[in-house]
């Protein structure tokens, strides 16, 4: 009994929040993009660009806040390229997203080599401030991540712009026939997803750590996208899914700390396994935006 | 089924294209692929320039490392081998309308399974042991590829998410298996399986190089896949499902079974890609992510998901990969640039594909002519991105 009480500690809670925060950022971005009708598999690459640029910015300026700004801008820049292809050129969105992911992986590794003349990552850089909760520290971006959820909810369901954005995602043709500029709303949504994925990436490199390492996102962008699907394309559902995945990640450190006899490999695999089960077993009745992946009609 | 008949009673339809027409039809596609690659290389040159190096020096080193002599050429072919098989894996799934990002994981498990069977000291002759090792890769890759197909068929789970998660799980499986030295022929210190028995290796056949029979296996599989896709009922079903799920259902084709099979076939090809590296190049399986998965996607896309296009694209990316080592060593340009080039190639190819589509639509509109059979252009094509490799549609 004591073991179970000790298990659900403040440490586990904060570890869950810490693991979930970058997922929440990226997932909110993915949600906006998907709701506007753009499948955003590029989240992974956008996060990685954000993580790298934030570390590079912090290294060059010596200021973590400036680093954060650079990281966000890099995420948005990547989103612009993605948008030009996925919306402007009307290329296949998944193909365009894959290209962004490859570019993110290659460009960041290439630049690490060029800037710091070493493989694998950056040296230690300035880090964003953090505060203490019940004995463990949380980064300032953590509350911001969870604040993004009600903001996205409000934007989507309570503003005219949000409703139009969702109309563009549900039925681009109907939206167009009532005069909604579908590409414009989609660009806005994709740009916002770049901003949020950039924040999620910056969180990893200069929030949770003080260093960029090659491919440090390790699939978090994809997991964030799975959270959107698992959360049935709603902000609150997505938050719940991100917390579940964060919990699966946090579990590993907690079990290690308590010395429970659970194989390490199983624990590392857990977030991926949970994601797999989540999208297969539990979302049979999910309803994606009807216009997802469809282009507007006007040539 | 009603077929439009002309006044003299003879059934009319579009002329069936002969081999020469088809070749002529493939030419613009090949040219636009080449153009797309050239543009990607040009932008890559700008990236090198901006990073403070001489792109000409880097590209010359890249070229010499890929094609400058017998040894570089064999290295290109060796590097192309898993990429061709991975590209074929991507292509067969894409023909069925599926996006297989799980090639990496299927390749890893195929390589692992082949490595384990090859390392068993069974004392078997090569005619038995080598096929057995390849069979292990086929089974492992096929199962790992078939799972996301089955899950999509049963629950609608999107294959992009499930295959990516299965990639991470495959790495985990590999890491766990490599540590089981009590039970399996593995070496945790090396992070590899034990060396393959001589009889289980893909033979090398060019003296003084690493050229191995895996390349021939890749070519053979390309031919087999071509036959399967374009000359059998199964291939017809697979492509119909890829073109339109609704049309396939109307024709009585079982969607779920077909996509499961397509994904399993994709996994089989990827598994063979892993086996080729294990049994031909390394002589054992190493527990390191080789990163072929994403390159395979680029190979499939550049090859327009046609088996022969994939072979050409695989050779191109094999050359880039083989040359990258020389580029890093002599010009000091990081081989990570190849990843950048891959991303640029995909962007460039997909942009060109869009232009091709416009061109073809214009041709269709011109062919229909004024007063011709009406075709609601937007309604018919707006929602379905046309894949380059799609065959001419039979008149119904």
Automatic annotation (TrEMBL), chain A:
Primary site of residence = membrane
| Regions that span the bilayer | 42-61, 68-88, 94-112, 133-156, 187-209, 221-246, 266-283
Please give the Gene Ontology molecular function terms for this protein. transmembrane transporter activity
Q: Tell me the superkingdom of the source.
A: Bacteria
Q: How does it sit in the membrane?
A: Multi-pass membrane protein
Pfam families noted in UniProt: BPD_transp_2 (PF02653)
Which UniProt keyword terms apply here? Cell membrane, Membrane, Transmembrane, Transmembrane helix
A GO cellular component annotation here is: plasma membrane
Protein's cellular compartments:
Cell membrane
What name does UniProt use for this protein? Answer: Nucleoside ABC transporter, permease protein 2
In its UniProt entry, the species of origin is given as uncultured Thermomicrobiales bacterium
Q: Taxonomy-wise, where does this protein's organism fall, top ranks first?
A: Bacteria, Pseudomonadati, Thermomicrobiota, Thermomicrobia, Thermomicrobiales
């Amino acid at each position: 009994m004591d073991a179970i009480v000790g298990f659900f500690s403040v440490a586990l809670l904060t570890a869950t929040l810490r693991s979930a925060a970058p997922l929440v950022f990226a997932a909110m971005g993915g949600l906006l993009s998907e709701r506007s009708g753009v499948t955003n598999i590029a989240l992974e690459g956008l996060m990685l660009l954000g993580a790298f640029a934030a570390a590079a910015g912090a290294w060059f300026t010596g200021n973590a806040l400036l680093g954060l700004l650079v990281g966000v801008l890099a995420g948005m820049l990547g989103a612009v390229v993605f948008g030009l292809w996925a919306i402007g050129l009307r290329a296949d969105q998944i193909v365009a997203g894959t290209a962004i992911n490859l570019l993110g992986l290659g460009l960041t590794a290439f630049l690490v080599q060029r800037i710091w003349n070493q493989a694998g990552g950056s040296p230690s850089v300035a880090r964003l401030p953090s505060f203490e909760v019940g004995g463990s520290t949380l980064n300032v971006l953590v509350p911001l991540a969870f604040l993004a959820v009600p903001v996205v909810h409000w934007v989507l369901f309570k503003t005219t712009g949000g409703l139009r954005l969702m109309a563009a995602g549900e039925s681009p043709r109907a939206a167009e026939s009532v005069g909604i500029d579908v590409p414009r709303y989609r660009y806005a949504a994709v740009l916002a997803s770049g901003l949020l994925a950039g924040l999620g990436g910056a969180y990893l490199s200069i929030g949770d750590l003080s260093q960029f390492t090659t491919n440090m996102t390790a699939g978090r962008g994809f997991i964030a996208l799975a959270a959107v699907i698992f959360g049935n394309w709603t902000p609150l559902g997505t938050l719940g899914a991100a917390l579940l995945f964060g919990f699966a990640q946090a579990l590993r450190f907690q079990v290690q700390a308590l010395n429970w006899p659970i194989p390490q490999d199983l624990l590392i695999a857990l977030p991926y396994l949970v994601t797999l089960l989540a999208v297969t077993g539990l979302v049979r009745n999910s309803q994606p935006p009807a216009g997802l992946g469809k282009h507007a009609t006007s040539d | 089924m009603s077929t439009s008949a002309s006044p003299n009673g003879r059934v009319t339809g579009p002329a069936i294209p002969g081999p020469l027409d088809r070749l002529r039809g493939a030419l613009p596609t090949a040219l636009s692929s080449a153009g797309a690659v050239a543009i990607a290389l040009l932008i890559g040159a700008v990236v090198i320039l901006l990073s403070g190096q001489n792109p000409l020096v880097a590209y010359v080193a890249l070229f010499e490392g890929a094609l400058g002599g017998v040894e570089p050429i064999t290295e290109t072919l060796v590097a192309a081998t898993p990429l061709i098989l991975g590209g074929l894996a991507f292509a067969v799934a894409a023909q069925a309308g599926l996006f297989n990002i799980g090639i990496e994981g299927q390749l890893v498990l195929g390589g692992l399974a082949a490595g384990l069977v090859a390392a068993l000291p069974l004392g078997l002759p090569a005619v038995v042991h080598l096929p057995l090792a390849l069979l292990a890769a086929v089974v492992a890759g096929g199962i790992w590829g078939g799972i996301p197909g089955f899950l999509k068929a049963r629950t609608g789970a999107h294959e992009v998410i499930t295959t990516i998660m299965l990639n991470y799980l495959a790495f985990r499986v590999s890491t766990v298996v490599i540590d089981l030295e009590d039970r399996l022929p593995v070496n945790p210190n090396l992070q590899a399986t034990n060396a393959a028995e001589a009889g289980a290796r893909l033979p090398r056949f060019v003296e003084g190089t690493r050229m191995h029979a895996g390349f021939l296996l890749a070519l053979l599989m390309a031919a087999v896949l071509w036959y399967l896709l374009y000359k059998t009922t199964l291939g017809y079903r697979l492509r119909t499902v890829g073109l339109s799920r609704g049309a396939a259902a109307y024709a009585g084709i079982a969607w779920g079974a077909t996509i499961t099979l397509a994904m399993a076939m994709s996994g089989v090809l990827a598994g063979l890609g892993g086996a080729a590296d294990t049994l031909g190049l390394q002589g054992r399986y190493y527990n390191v992510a080789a990163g072929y998965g994403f390159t395979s996607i680029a190979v499939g896309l550049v090859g327009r998901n046609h088996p022969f296009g994939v072979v050409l694209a695989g050779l191109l990316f094999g050359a880039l990969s083989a040359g990258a080592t020389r580029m890093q060593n002599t010009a000091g340009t990081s081989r990570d640039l190849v990843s950048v080039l891959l991303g640029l190639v995909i962007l460039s190819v997909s942009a060109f594909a869009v232009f091709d589509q416009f061109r073809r639509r214009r041709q269709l509109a011109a062919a229909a002519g004024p007063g011709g059979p009406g075709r609601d252009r937007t309604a018919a094509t707006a929602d379905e991105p046309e894949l380059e490799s799609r065959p001419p549609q039979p008149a119904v």
